[in-house]
Amino acid sequence: MSKLIVETEGKASESVKSLIRLAAKAAFAHFEYDWDGYVFIQLVDGETIRRINKEHRGIDKETDVLSFPMNDFYRGECREEIYTDPQLGACELGDMVISLSRAREQAREFGHSVARECAYLTVHSILHLLGFDHIDEGEEKAAMRQKEEEILKKLGLERE
């Protein structure tokens, strides 16, 4: 059985970091890969994610989560040979940045817990790293939303 190595950095409680690691691992485990993965998750405030968004995407706007994939996946399938970093003993999926201030705001806005929102953003970003997207309002977005809900349901954090 494959595993996901999750490294987190940032000012957040250990319970939030633990939930984020759990959500990332659940999203990765959903695909039953025969190789191990690695992801780095940075937990930041609104101004920091705005700066990162401007630097990397040219968009001077605060957002909730950013994903920086390291491999060419499409809907969970890698379209190139999996490279296992010898130091990590795993394939680097990429990096994600989560705005904890946006997570709190969106939890209030959507009427659910901050825990559910942090888990959702983590699952959402892992899916981006694995080649899911929601640029269109059609099939691509529907496939991504379906996977998000399947994974969150396994965690007991489905929409209420």
Name some characteristics of this structure:
160 residues, alpha/beta, Collagenase (Catalytic Domain), four-stranded mixed sheet, two-stranded antiparallel sheet
Helix percent reads 40-55%
Low-confidence blocks of residues: none
- What order do the helices and strands follow? EHEHEEEEHHH
Q: Give the total of domains.
A: 1
Describe the secondary-structure layout.
Blueprint: E1 4-10, H1 14-29, E2 37-44, H2 46-57, E3 65-69, E4 73-74, E5 77-78, E6 91-99, H3 100-110, H4 114-129, H5 139-154
Parallel strand pairs: 1-2, 2-6
Antiparallel strand pairs: 3-6, 4-5
Helix pairs in contact: 1-4, 3-4, 4-5
Describe the protein in words.
This protein is α/β, with parallel strands linked by helices. The protein has a single domain (4-154), classed as Metalloproteases ("zincins"), catalytic domain (Collagenase (Catalytic Domain)), CATH 3.40.390. It has five helices and six strands. The chain has helices at 14-29, 46-57, 100-110, 114-129, 139-154, and strands spanning 4-10, 37-44, 65-69, 73-74, 77-78, 91-99. Helix 3 packs across helix 4 (114-129) and helix 4 (114-129) crosses helix 5 (139-154).
Describe the structure in brief.
With 160 residues, this protein is of the alpha/beta class. The protein has helices at 14-29, 46-57, 100-110, 114-129, 139-154; strands at 4-10, 37-44, 65-69, 73-74, 77-78, 91-99.
